[in-house]
Amino acid sequence: MNNGQKRGALAFERVTKRYGKSVAVDDITFSIEPKTMVTLLGPSGCGKTTTLRMIAGLERVDEGRIRIGGRDVTDLSAAERDVSMVFQSYALFPHMSVLENVAYGLTVARQPKKQAHERAHDALALVGLAELAARSPSELSGGQQQRVAVARALVLQPEILLLDEPLSNLDAKMRTRVRDEIRDLQVKLGLTAVYVTHDQEEALAISDQIVVMNRKKIAQQGTPREIFEAPADEFVADFIGNANVVDGEIRVADGKTARCAVSGEQIDLPYGGTRTGAVRIAMRPEAIELSPYEHGSLVTGEVSRAIYLGREMQYTVQTQLGELFVVCHRLDQIFPRGAQVALRFKAHGAAIVGAHA
C-alpha cells in the first residue's frame, strides 16, 4: 500500500463539505485503524451521514483529503473506491431473488454468473441465510432483509464496509440480535467498518472506537470506555449516558486528582490540571445515591417522578442543584413521588467537563 499504510486504514485530513453557503461538515480530521469497527455518533444534522457518504464517494469534498489504505481517494468516484455500503432502507430489488440481490454487484462488475452466484451463496452462508437464497425479499422478515443487505456488501470483499443506520427499521429485540451479528462478522472477517448511528447504546456495544460529532465537527474520539468515563465536554457527557451536569468547585488539585465540592458534598475526581475554582461536573444517573431525608443532609430533594422498569427505578429529583435524573438498581427501597430524599455522589460515573461559564 501507498505510504506504508495497511489495507483498510482510513484518514480524513481537514475535510470540509458545503451545500451552497451551508456547512455540512466543518474541517474534520480523524483516522481509523484497519480491522476495527468505528462508529460515527451524534444527533440528527451533526454531519455523520455526510461524512459516511464522503468516504463512499457519494459526496464531493470541498476542502481537505481522504485516504484509504494510504491512497488519496479524494477525487475518485464511488466506483473507483474499494468500499461497500449498507443502507438504512436495505435497497433490495423486489423483482430479484435473494441470491440475485447479493450477486448483483458482482454481475455489474462482469463476473461470470456461475462464479458470482457461488460467491453470493458463500456470503449468504456467512449471515446464516443460505437456505433462503431462492426467496424474494418480500418473503423475508425485516431482520432477514437487513442481513441480505449486509451479505450484498460483504460479497464484494471491500476494503471498508460502511453502514448507515442499518438497524433503524427493526424492532428493539431484532436490533440487538442483528447488531451483534454484524459485530461478530466484522471481527471474524477482519473488516474495517464505519457505522453511523444516533443510538448511544448501539455505539457503546459494537465499537472499537467512537467518533462523536456535534455541530458539523468532531467533539471527541476514543474507545467506548474513554468516551463514557472521560467525556471531553458537556455535550459528550450528556449525549452519551444522559449525564446530569452540575456546578462544582475544585478545592485542591495535584495534576492527577481534584478534590471537588458539590453543594458541600466532597468528591475526588480524575483531573490532569492544577487549577482550582468553579467547574462543571457531569454526574451519570447511576453515580447518584438516594436515601431517606435526614436533618443535616448536604444535598436534598423531592422526587417528582418515579418509574419502575423491572430491573431498575428511574427518578427525577428536584434539588438545589436543579433537576437531577437518577437510576437506582436497588429495589429494596423505592421512593414514591413526593418523597423527601438525601443525595450522595459517587466518584465512579462522575467527571469534570469544563470550567464554569
Descriptors for this entry?
alpha+beta; five-stranded antiparallel sheet; Rossmann fold; six-stranded mixed sheet; 2 domains; 8 helices; 357 residues
Rounded Rg: 24 Å
- Give average pLDDT, whole number: 91
CATH class of the largest domain: Alpha Beta
The class by helix and strand makeup works out as alpha+beta
Unreliable stretches = none
Query: What portion of the residues fall into strands of 2 or more residues?
Result: 35-45%
Total helical segments: 8
Number of domains: 2
- What is the H/E order? EEEHEEEHHHEHEHEEHHEEEEEEEEEE
Q: What's the SSE blueprint?
A:
Elements: E1 10-19, E2 22-32, E3 37-41, H1 48-56, E4 63-68, E5 71-72, E6 83-86, H2 98-108, H3 113-126, H4 142-154, E7 160-164, H5 172-189, E8 192-197, H6 200-206, E9 209-214, E10 217-222, H7 224-229, H8 234-239, E11 244-253, E12 257-262, E13 265-270, E14 277-283, E15 288-292, E16 300-308, E17 313-319, E18 322-328, E19 340-345, E20 350-355
Parallel strand pairs: 3-8, 3-9, 6-7, 7-8
Antiparallel strand pairs: 1-2, 1-4, 4-5, 9-10, 11-12, 11-14, 12-13, 14-20, 15-19, 16-17, 16-19, 17-18
Helix pairs in contact: 2-3, 2-4, 3-4, 4-5
Description:
The chain is of the alpha+beta class and 357 residues long. It has two domains: 228 residues, Rossmann fold (3-Layer(aba) Sandwich); 104 residues, no CATH class. Helices cover 24% and strands 36% of the residues. The strands form four sheets. A six-stranded mixed beta sheet has the order 6-7-8-3-9-10, sandwiched between helices. The protein has a five-stranded antiparallel beta sheet with strand order 13-12-11-14-20. A five-stranded antiparallel beta sheet has the order 15-19-16-17-18, with no helix packed on it. It is globular. The mean pLDDT is 91.
